[in-house]
Structures are given as C-alpha cells and as structure tokens.
Amino acid sequence: MARSIENKNDRCFCGAEPIIFLPYASRYLCERDFIRMFDKRVRKTITRFRMLRKGDRVALGLSGGKDSTVLLHSLAELRKDLPFELIAITIDEGIVGYRPITIKTAKRECEKLGIEHRVVSFRKGAGNSLDSLIKKQAKRSVDRDDGEHHESPLPCSLCGVIRRYLLNKAAREAGATKLAMGHNLDDTAQTVFMNIMRNEPGRLARLNDPFVTDPHFIPRIRPLMLTPEKEIALYVMVRGMKIERLECPYARTAFRNQARKMLNETEERYPGTKFKVMNWFLDVEGALRAKYGKGLKSGATKLPSCPKCGEPSSGDGDCMYCRMVK
Ligand code: SF4
User: Fold this and answer.
1) What was the pLDDT predicted at 309?
2) What single string gives the DSSP state of each residue in 108-143?
3) I need a surface site. Which of 10, 92, 214, 262 has the fewest CB within 10 A?
4) 65 lines ligand 1 (CB under 6 A)
C-alpha cells in the first residue's frame, strides 16, 4: 500500500480488480486473493516456526486493538484444523479514556466466538493503575530536583515491564502452554531495530522463544510477526470487523515511535525493508541465543528466577518488575 493503485488497467493475477498493491512483492491483489494470502501467511508462520502443537492451551494477549483481535479470529479459525484450546487475557493498565473502550471490543469479540476471556488489572496485580504510577513517578522526579522539571521514566518502559509480568503470570495461572501476542511485522522489526540501537543483543536473543520449557515462563508466539501492519488494517476493513481506531495517550513518548518513523520512511523508499530486518534477525537469532540466551536455547528447562518474587528473570538478581514496581 505504499503506492496506491494508479492505473485502472492494473489487475490482480486472477484478473479481478485489485484492492491493494504490495510494493515488496510488486503485486496487485483483489479482495478474495488478499484474504487468502493473509490467512495463508499467518498459518505458514505458525507452521514454519512450529508455534503450536496439538493439545496446546493458548492464552492470547488480547488488547482489543486491531492486531490482537485479528489474531483472535485467526486462531479461533485455526482450531478447526488443529485441536488446541484458546483463551484470551486482557491486561487493563488503567489508562483513562483508552483502555475501557478496547476492553469492550475484546469482550464483545470473545463472546461472539465463544472464547473464555479474563481481564487482569494493573491496580489489582501491581497495586496501582498506570495513570497513577506515572503521576507518582513524575511527582517524585520533580520533588527530587526542588521543583525543577525532571523527566520521569518513559511510561511505555514501565507499562511494558508490568504488562509482560502480569500476562505471563495470568497465562500460567490459566494453565496455558503458549502465550500468543498480536505483534505484527512492523512491531517486531521495530523491536529488532531498537535493540540494535540500544546495543542489547541479550534482549534480541530472547525475542523469539517458543520452545522454552521453564514451568514459570509461558513461551510467547507471534503468528503475525511476518504480516505488515497496513495489511492488518486492510484485513479488518474487508472482513467488516468493528474495531475502534484509538491510540494510547502515552504512545508518543515512546522510543519505539522514533524507530517506527525511521523504518516507515525507509520502507517507503526501499520497499521490503521491514521484511529484510526480520530476515536478518531470523538469520542471526541462533547465534545470538548461543551467545546471550542464558538458558533460552531450545528445550531449556530452567530460567534464572528473581530472588524477590520467584518469577522468571532475564538475568541474575531482581527481575525488572521488582526493580521498577516493588
Ligand atoms: Fe503501555 Fe505504551 Fe502501549 Fe500505552 S503505548 S499501552 S503506555 S506500552
């Protein structure tokens, strides 16, 4: 979609009128072939990375936004061919004016598909909503500097750590064997890019970890990691899904925004860049795991655990959650 359909004579390979041009593949697709290609790609990603096994119990991290809602429908459909259980978990960060609306969507879609839905709140799980944690931190930052303005930690860093912690815990308590995330190609390429810019190869080594077998850690899978965000937006439209287009009020403060902007600009000039970033990552991830994986190699049975809360930790000492929240 970086280029619109310019010529009335442009056609899908089946001869029908196209609804999308895929610049990275130099291809036009009609609605029917677009939907086919989309569904096939999600299934292929699941198969290629052996994300699911017969008998799995999958907990989907369902925000109620377009990505996770599309994934909810894809996984529900896939159950017709591959027997696995599916439940959805929504984390309520407590972001006024934003999260209550997406929770409604999540509930409605789960009801429609007959899928069990659980909501876990920051307030219950971490003692405070994200809104109040941010207010408290900002106040502390200002007090420390005698009233001088001092930047508080980025909301997304705090939110991400708490959300991952609560999701993993909730998925484990629900008896899940896999935790499915709605991260798309854009999100995943941004994460790769951000970890390179921050020089954090250890984090990159842990990005794709469907085989970890530590009983405290539910391996995460990302069936949309090779699906561009724009194609998910189009899929939502053509499938007639009713999903609110909302942006979290804190999203603009994120470092991720910078990575998104750079990648989008490069993709516009050099179509296929996001796929290339992902392919680079997939090519080197084995080497990264071997060097930095710390027990995250395929079949690992024990991850380092936090001495304070006992939950899995990315290294020795207290986990990020305990350092940030407790
Ligand atoms: Fe949390 Fe940032 Fe996402 Fe908002 S944009 S939900 S603060 S991670």
Assistant:
1) 87
2) HHHHHHT-EEEEEEHHHHHSS-HHHHHHHHHHHHHH
3) 10
4) no
Residue 218 to residue 46: CA distance in whole angstroms: 17
Q: Is the Cβ atom of 87 under 6 angstroms away from ligand 1?
A: no
∠178-179-181 over CA atoms, to 5°? 140
Q: Is the CB of 194 under 6 A from ligand 1?
A: no
- Residue 246: the pLDDT is 87
Least confident residue range of 105-119, 264-278, 292-306: 292-306
pLDDT digits (tens, 9 = 90+) for 3-24: 566 677 789 999 999 999 999 9
As a whole number of Å, the CA-based R_g of the chain is 20
The protein residue with its alpha carbon nearest to ligand 1, atom 2, reads 156
In tens, the pLDDT along 155-186 reads 888 899 999 999 999 999 999 999 999 999 99
Reading the block at residue 145, the tokens are 């500097």
In short, whether 134's Cβ falls inside 6 Å of ligand 1 is no
Query: CA–CA separation, 116 vs 236, rounded Å?
Result: 22
Report CA-CA distances (Å) from 22 to 37, 56, 102, 234, 272. 11, 34, 29, 12, 9
